[in-house]
């Protein structure tokens, strides 16, 4: 066929138009004249997907011709992919061509992009990080597969009614999801329950056999993941649970139709819904079933491919590097052991070496209540063979500890895989540590705290396993796609290689002192703010002024993230205005966004408090529109892409020592926002990079937080000694934000006064003072612009490409095309 004009592969407007028309007509049975927006969206997506598949097939082919290559398997219970259309067009380099193709049919590409529903298959930072890493792996041309669960219902949609969060089911599949393709022929059988028995094989060896009580089918659904302007196209392979109802399995589902239907229902619940709880795992059997479900599918899939391409079980680790995204997939450790021992007859030591060399473990949180444990009885009932293997791993682990530390039974108790206090339970973090050759935290401080506190015993015994890999975000989605105005200005100024060499942004430094460049920089930001203001008006009815300082905090709602500290500052400004309406304050628009876990009552009350603050402030005549408070509903990747580019100030105000890394902090700074933040997570490294003079720092350090707590922290005393703080807390307690109801926010107020575990009152004064420095700088637009430009110029470290290069070097030992690296 004529090169460049092929309907499946052509990248010019004419070929793309032809491709979209063909899909509309012959695939969807629609005439372009009567097609709906969704029809056009689907047809456009299919046309793009063809071009991804073409590259995907070529990537697989390249891999097959590399006998020594290693492939990365990123195992994650969550992938927060975000909308796919715009990101794929950018990576293919055909945004303008597609816009032109659609325009010829009277369709606006931007309308289709707006129409897209994102797959919300994650809770927040951890799930979005997995998606950024897939983008970078493909861009760096590292063969990789993301393995996870194809939840039918992702993270709930959030509505705000009367100020309260209401959760609605996320039906992301209801209009059809065009980016994936099901591969029923590659289905995997997953087993649960039952019992084990021993037997002697032909060689007279003692072996174990698992007789399950239940079998579920895992069907893979593949989404192509294209790198930026490269040919490499990797795979996201998500598994959907189905009932097994084939003749082969009739032996397991005896007769009885009602029973069979019931089994179908229970089988399919496994991939039904994402657990929204991001703080305290509750030991729910279904959650463990989900974890084992996708892990068993993934390992089987990897092992199958390995054996098909001529590998042996003993060389598995030479072809696969598997990363555990938190402890959620950690049952992969006993699962690989089980396959190597029981199905392939390896000896323990050999199987253990393969397993340890295969896995790396990334920890994402220090919160003690978030460390996963499973009751032993539950784990054993669901995975009897795995429990036996875990006990054997533990026996060898404890023997090893006793050899190195004779008589130190307390250490054995702490490091044991089994918690013996109360209901006996399996500690997944310990299992991940013992089963992995590499263990990493996600920012420098986080790794240090992991090493000195949560995992100190493990550092003592296996120091060589530990390393830090600071998180990063993809500049393609979060700058090129989200902020075309800023991207264009940067490319015109320093060239267009910065999306893949983010350190090149440093070339902007010399322009920070150019008044003309600063003015264009401000124009871009202003246009982004006008756009966001229009969206805010449409979604909330609130009018905000694009000339005001956009002060934004978007992230999951959690006490440690301290959205309520932000509220205390707003109420402080409000009170000052009430006392002196002529006070010269910097006009600000405060935007909040984020979901609260449905069972987390305090977080839900914080959302209500933000709304109530808006109700109090927004229309108060004394305020004269100078302060506006907005709760932006249903924060998501898609909404984030509209929000980050419009921010002037990024709120990163967690209690020091609590936020493992944060990644929103990076997205804001890359879009020209200045940061007000604590010395927590990656904030510390951001400040190191951009320079202390270009970062608004406040608050206690992690060490100071620890000693304040050890010394008997008394929030009540702080409240009593600070008149302004006391007045603001009293304002909340008075019922003035609740139509006179003094009970509504009482639990929140009492929590602050009597416990305040996140040191909100301790940091209040420092925060308010820091906000005054922010306001002072805002009054000098030239100085502000300069600082904003310097922030962007110095953010190169926080590309997820850098993070992935670190993983390749320090953990996976792979290079482009899977070539092994030394080390
Ligand atoms: C647990 C039980 C049941 C259901 C869900 C969970 C669960 C899900 C996600 C628990 C924790 C989850 O994620 C933790 C998380 O998102 N951590 C964040 O990871 C980011 C990426 O490394 C960091 O930037 C954030 O600081 C960290 O909070």
Automatic annotation (TrEMBL):
Pfam families named in the record: Phosphorylase (PF00343)
CDD domains: GT35_Glycogen_Phosphorylase (cd04300)
InterPro entries from the UniProt entry: Glycg_phsphrylas, Glyco_trans_35, Pyridoxal_P_attach_site
First-level EC class: transferase
Keyword flag Glycosyltransferase: yes
Key words of the record: Carbohydrate metabolism, Glycosyltransferase, Pyridoxal phosphate, Transferase
Family affiliation: Belongs to the glycogen phosphorylase family.
Protein name as catalogued: Alpha-1,4 glucan phosphorylase
């Amino acid at each position: 066929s004529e090169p460049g004009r092929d309907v499946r592969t052509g990248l010019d407007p004419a070929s793309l138009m032809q491709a979209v028309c063909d899909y509309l007509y012959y695939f969807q049975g629609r005439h372009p004249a009567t097609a709906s927006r969704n029809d056009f969206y689907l047809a456009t997506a299919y046309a793009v997907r063809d071009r991804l598949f073409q590259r995907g097939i070529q990537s697989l082919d390249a891999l097959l011709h590399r006998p020594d290559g290693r492939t990365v398997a990123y195992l994650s219970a969550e992938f927060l992919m975000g909308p796919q259309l715009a990101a794929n067009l950018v990576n293919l380099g055909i945004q303008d061509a597609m816009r032109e193709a659609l325009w010829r049919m009277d369709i606006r590409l931007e309308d289709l992009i707006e129409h897209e529903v994102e797959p919300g298959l994650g809770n927040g930072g951890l799930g979005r990080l997995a998606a950024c890493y897939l983008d970078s792996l493909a861009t760096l041309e590292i063969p990789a597969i993301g393995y996870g669960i194809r939840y039918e219902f992702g993270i709930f949609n959030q509505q705000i009614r009367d100020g309260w969060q209401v959760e609605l089911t996320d039906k992301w599949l209801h209009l059809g999801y065009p980016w994936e393709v099901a591969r029923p022929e590659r289905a995997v059988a997953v087993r649960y329950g039952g019992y084990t028995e021993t037997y002697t094989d032909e060689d007279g060896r003692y072996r174990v056999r698992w007789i399950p009580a239940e079998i579920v089918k895992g069907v893979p659904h593949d989404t192509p993941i294209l790198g930026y302007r490269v040919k490499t196209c990797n795979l996201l392979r998500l598994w959907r649970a189905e009932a097994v109802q084939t003749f082969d399995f009739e032996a397991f589902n005896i007769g009885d139709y009602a029973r069979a239907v019931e089994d179908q229902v229970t089988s399919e619940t496994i991939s039904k819904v994402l657990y929204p709880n991001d703080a305290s795992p509750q030991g729910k059997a279904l959650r463990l079933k989900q974890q084992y479900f996708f892990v068993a599918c993934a390992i089987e899939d990897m092992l199958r491919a390995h054996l098909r391409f001529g590998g042996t079980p003993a060389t598995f680790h030479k072809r696969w590097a598997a990363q555990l995204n938190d402890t959620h997939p950690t049952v992969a450790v006993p699962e690989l052991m089980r396959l190597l021992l029981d199905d392939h007859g390896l000896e323990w030591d050999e199987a253990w070496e393969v397993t340890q060399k295969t896995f790396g473990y990334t920890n994402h949180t220090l919160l003690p209540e978030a460390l996963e444990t499973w009751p032993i009885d539950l784990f054993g009932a669901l995975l009897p063979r795995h429990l036996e293997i875990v006990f054997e791993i533990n026996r060898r682990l404890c023997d090893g500890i006793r050899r190195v530390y004779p008589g130190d039974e307390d250490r054995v108790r702490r490091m044991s895989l089994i918690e013996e206090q109360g209901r006996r339970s399996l500690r997944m973090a310990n299992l991940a540590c013992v089963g992995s050759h590499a263990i990493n935290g996600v920012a420098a401080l986080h790794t240090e705290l992991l090493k000195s506190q949560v995992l100190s015993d493990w550092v003592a015994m296996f120091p060589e396993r530990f390393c830090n890999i600071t998180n990063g975000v993809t500049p393609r989605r979060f700058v090129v796609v989200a902020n075309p105005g800023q991207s264009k200005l940067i490319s015109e100024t320093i060239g267009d290689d910065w999306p893949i060499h983010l350190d090149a942004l440093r070339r902007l430094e010399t322009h920070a002192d150019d008044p003309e460049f600063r003015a264009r920089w401000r124009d871009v930001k202003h246009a982004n703010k006008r756009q966001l203001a229009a969206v805010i008006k449409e979604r909330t009815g609130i009018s905000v002024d694009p000339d005001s300082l956009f002060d934004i905090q978007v992230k999951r709602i959690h006490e440690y993230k301290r959205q309520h500290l932000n509220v205390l500052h707003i109420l402080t400004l409000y009170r000052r205005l009430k006392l002196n309406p002529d006070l010269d304050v910097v006009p600000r628009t405060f935007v909040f966004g984020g979901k609260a876990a449905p069972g987390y009552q305090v977080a839900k009350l914080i959302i209500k408090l933000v709304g109530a603050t808006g109700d109090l402030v927004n229309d108060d005549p004394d305020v004269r529109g100078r302060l506006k408070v907005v709760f932006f509903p249903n924060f998501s990747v898609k909404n984030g892409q509209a929000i980050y580019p419009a921010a002037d100030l990024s709120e990163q105000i967690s209690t020091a020592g609590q936020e493992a890394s944060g990644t929103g902090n990076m997205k804001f700074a890359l879009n020209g926002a200045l940061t007000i933040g604590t010395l927590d997570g990656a904030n510390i490294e951001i400040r190191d990079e951009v320079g202390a003079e270009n970062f608004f720092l406040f608050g206690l350090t992690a060490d100071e937080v620890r000693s304040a707590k050890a010394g008997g922290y008394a929030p009540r005393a702080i409240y009593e000694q600070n008149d302004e703080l006391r007045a603001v807390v009293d304002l909340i307690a008075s019922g003035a934000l609740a139509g006179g109801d003094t009970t509504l926010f009482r639990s929140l107020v009492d929590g602050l006064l009597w416990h305040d575990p996140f040191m909100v009152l301790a940091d209040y004064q420092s925060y308010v003072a820091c906000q005054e420095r922010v306001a002072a700088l805002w009054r000098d637009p030239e100085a502000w612009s300069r600082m904003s430009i310097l922030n962007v110029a110095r953010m190169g470290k926080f590309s997820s490409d850098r993070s992935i290069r670190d993983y390749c070097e320090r953990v996976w030992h792979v290079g482009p095309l899977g070539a092994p690296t030394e080390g």
